[in-house]
Amino acid sequence: MNGRIVVSLLLCATALPAVAIDTIRFAAREITAAGTRFENVEVKLVLDPKTGLPRGRVSAGSTLIGPVAFDVALSERPELRETTLTGDRFAIAGGELGIEAVFTPSRWRIEGRAERIESDGLLTFTRRYINIPPDITAAGRLDGLVRFVGRPGRELPTEAYAEFVGKGVGFANGEGSFAGEGIDVRLHLRADALEGTAYSLQGNLRSAAGEALFGNTYLRLGKYPTSMDLKGSFDGDSIDIEELSLVQQGLLRTSLAANLALGATFIDTPLDPNSVKVRRANLTLHELRFPDVYTSYLQTALAGTALDSLETAGSVSGQLRIIDNVPQAGELRLADLRLRDSKGMFHLDGLKGELYWTAEGDDPAAPSYIAWESGGAYDIGGSGSSMRLSLRGATAALLEPARMPIFDGALNIQQLRIVDPGQESMQIEFTGELEPISMEELTKAFGWPAFGGVVTGRIPGVLYRDNKITVAGDIEAEIFDGVVRGSNITLSDPLGRWPRLEADIRVENLDLEALTRTFEVGTITGRLEGGLTNLELFDWSPVAFDMYLGTPANDRSDRQISVDAINSISNVGGTAGTGVAAAMRTGVLRFFSNYRYKRLALRCVLEDDICSLSGAPISPNRYYLLEGAGVPRVDIIGNTGRVRWSELLEQIEWQIRTGGTFVVE
Amino acid sequence: MKTLLRLNLSLVTLLISACVTINVYFPAGAAEKAADEIIDSVIKGAGKAAPRSSTPAPRTTPPQSSVHRQTNTHWLVWLAGRTLHALVPAAHAQGVDANMDVSSPEIRAITASMQERFGQLERFFDAGVIGLTTSGLIEIRDANAAALPDRALVRRLVAEDNNDRNALYEAIARANDRPEWEADIRRIFAQRWIERGARPGWYYQDGDGNWQQR
Questions:
Q1: C-alpha to C-alpha distance for A68 and A392, rounded to whole angstroms
Q2: At what angle are helices B105-126 and B148-175 packed, to 10 degrees?
Q3: Any CB–CB contact under 8 A between A591 and chain B?
Q4: Three-state DSSP class for residue A165
Q5: Residues B111-139: pLDDT tens digits?
Q6: pTM as predicted
Q7: A197: helix, coil or strand?
Q8: Are A552 and A609 found together in one domain?
Q9: In a mutagenesis test of the B interface, which of A543, A612, A648 is the best target, namely the one with the most B β-carbons within 10 Å?
Q10: A181 neighbourhood in chain B, CB within 8 Å
Q11: For an interface test with A, which of B99, B101, B139, B155 has the most A Cβ atoms less than 10 Å from its Cβ?
Q12: Residues A524 and A646 in one domain
């Protein structure tokens, strides 16, 4: 049965007042009107003896908004052939609802006005049309108006209109990851019949108060007033979105044009949002403004990575094209972006770029480029540079060699390929070389005493895979007239909170005089070789190594050591400490400021913050740190096997800073 | 006869070395002690600087071994095997008393980071927002128990803390030169966090993954 029968019966009752009908009772187990089902409907009308017009009661055991029962009165304006049925406001969903229906031979209009109804009631109503997960609840009250306009003989209305205004409403899912609180919202939605079963759609939503959480996204609507505007059309199981714009003031402006296949008309069965197919969509990011987009949308998702505490600025715009649910092409324009790690790990300033991407199998996109004005990692500074890239499928590749200036040198990148960027399976391949970078700049950046020399290196292959960077090839520093070479370099968890660097470092033919002059630990002449094998830095601090530094076996240089240097070495070796210098300034020795030596040997095996010291062995517990030569001869013999590394460092630092002496116990 | 015995003995030694499989037992008792030490310092030292560990723990050489007897061996070998078997429980007991090294700079750095974060996490444990899992991590149990602006913060803290926890288990296994112990260390920490770290009212996951309250 459908709604029109009810109407015509009512018309009979009023159009023939002369007939002695004093009561009309209409009952139906089920009525479907405007796509909505009502159960156990009963309309009972009596003629008001005073006005001569019918009044009575309408009740329905089950409607979308629960059982309803209200008094109605009929009025009519015969000259317009218009009959109006006015319902008393009745309590529903915690608020009140008043219904008015107007009928003429050519048109009908049913209107409901709700006041302060529970928003959860509206949610129940919406569930009739859209599958909303059962754990989602709503809170707060709404005022609303719903109006349907139609023509006799046409089952579906010609016009549908809804507006809701809510203050302080909220919503939440079961686990609390999707929630809103204290939201002020105003929603308008209007559908007008077009040809056949099609409707045009128009709507908007405004909200300027409250807060909302969508997974990793936390939005303060008060800070970023949000509005959505919709223009489109709807026919059966297909929605055509001409434009759906989303503007969050101070945060972003986006718009979407799309054609969606719904899978089923939601009038018959509730629409399952998961079954909606995007036939085609074009998403335009007019503007994403930093730092707000970073703090609202990205920061929580990046927690636990190296990108989770950035200071950002600038803006991004772009576009994404989707066909049949699959992204096909996209572009991104970076405008004066600034990314600065607040822990000082890296920075990029004045980042600009145009990135063009296409899906695998699609035509290659136009070449992409990024450029920046300055960048760096830790205290290593770099000036501006740029890269040309191709982006296709899950692969980004450098199109032509790029040069990244670092101080007075540069890193020349010959090849760079990134597969699955941002994924756990991310893999990076890289080859390049270092143009000499002067040590003077580097030492200044690291806060070391300044010294000369250069760092160079050929890097035939760098591979990032399984969260680990493996460097094939050596990085060399030409310093103090010798060479320091790093090889077997790996870096685990480079983008995480706990990076670990492993390497072997080889030291060859350093000029000790230049070295000791730089570090002001007395003067030693001669040459030095050795290295650090199995060096391990955890969070950039050394935690393990096997260090040996000593005089080369066939050294022919002039080897002399000053009293100050003897004092420094004996302190490290744990010999008499402050007493050494004093002793050497008495007796015959006071006439000598330099002594000749045969060899120098220092070994420190660091593990668990303990440095096990040794040198050139004499007996199991004794070793030379310095084996003297000639007359008078001074030997430095070590006897302390174990020194706490962190304390040793503190003391050396103090010694260098103050020029004083230190004691190792 | 003497020569024969000597020959026999050397044969036995050879055979024993040929058929003995050494299995290194995980020193659960030492791991529990180590876990307790770290958990205490995370919870009690929250907000303070990481305490510098006292004397460095002596490197524990894992002395525990077991003997798997191969069939078809000489009776003397078998006897020697039995004897070794009888000795094994003692060796194992020694392993339980052995120390697990938790003094490495890595472990101290990670512990200090967890300590600092614990000051922020504590109230979310108290409110039942987060709980302890059987894999030695933490998880959001009921975000609804946190105020809305706090929920994004909780997510961030949980991700960061789990990052530290994973790094900690790896670092302890590494400090003891036993990377293969990582899973066992994780399991022990999960247990000790629930039994020792959790305060009354805190939530933890039982073996079936259901939330229980202390």
A1: 59
A2: 150
A3: no
A4: strand
A5: 999 999 999 999 999 999 999 999 999 99
A6: 0.78
A7: coil
A8: yes
A9: A543
A10: 148
A11: B155
A12: yes
